[in-house]
Write a structure and sequence with these properties.
There is one protein chain. By secondary structure, the chain is α/β, with parallel strands linked by helices. It contains 6 helices and 6 strands, in the order E-H-H-E-H-H-E-H-E-E-E-H. Strands 2-1-3-4 form a 4-stranded parallel sheet, with helices on both faces. Helix 4 crosses helix 5. It starts with a strand and ends in a 29-residue tail after the last helix.
Amino acid sequence: MGFDAFMSYSHAADGRLAPQVQAGLQRFAKPWWRRRALRVFRDETGLAASPQLWAGIEEALGASEWFVFLASPEPAGSEWVAREIGWWIEHRDPDRVLPVVTGGDLVWDQVSGCLDVAASSADGADGGGCRGGVGAVRGGGGGCLSCSAAHGRSFRSSR
């Protein structure tokens, strides 16, 4: 059974907020006869500590329809968040990334129709070279989600 969403977040920055976002997503517009509206994967509720931790994360990423990223200016970046986003960009549709800004800003460039990573302060938007976040690394090395020729896709407004 798959997940409607995979939640990626920094434990240091959003560890207290992430369970609340998960609970809200699971309750939002929930029919009375269902236990939850959406199945949301979050590491602390969907994984057991094991030597195969990354394999479990990859399995959950592959079974998820959407990638929900909690973005904020601090901390300097999470290795796990970078790996999760890198995996998603490599294997899934970047149009299915939903950034939830928990701090800082995501700035949209109206001229290019893309995320302005240099002017954005939410974690990973510029990411000090796209270290992991909305600007997102691809497989651990260069190439950003926002208007990257490396991906042949762009993070564009639906307007």
